[in-house]
From TrEMBL:
Species of the source: Anaerotignum lactatifermentans
Taxonomic path: Bacteria, Bacillati, Bacillota, Clostridia, Lachnospirales
One of the Pfam families matching this protein, by short name: HTH_Tnp_1
Protein name: Transposase
Amino acid sequence: MPRGVPNKRYTPEFKKMVIETMLEENLSYCETARRFEVSCDTRIKSWERIYLTEGPEGLAVERRGRGNKSGSRQLPKEVEEDLLAEVQRLRAENAYLKNLQALVLERERRQRRNHW
């Protein structure tokens, strides 16, 4: 495809008409693509797969791009609050243990100095 030419977008109604015509008239993917001036037959294949698995409504779903996985899984408010509280508790515990370790090391150093 030449540069500067955007990808052609097809309406859900057009996709539905193409697939239903193909199924009714027993057309091949190539014949269907030629007849409806769709750029490639693999697009027709994917439309047919969606039509057969999800129904005509599935053709209206925007599927381009990587998708938004992080936004699709929203945690319930109380679970999110519990997780934040646990993170704060673990951070405090970690800081306490670091301070304790520093104190123990300092005590050991003093004992070594006093021993000599």
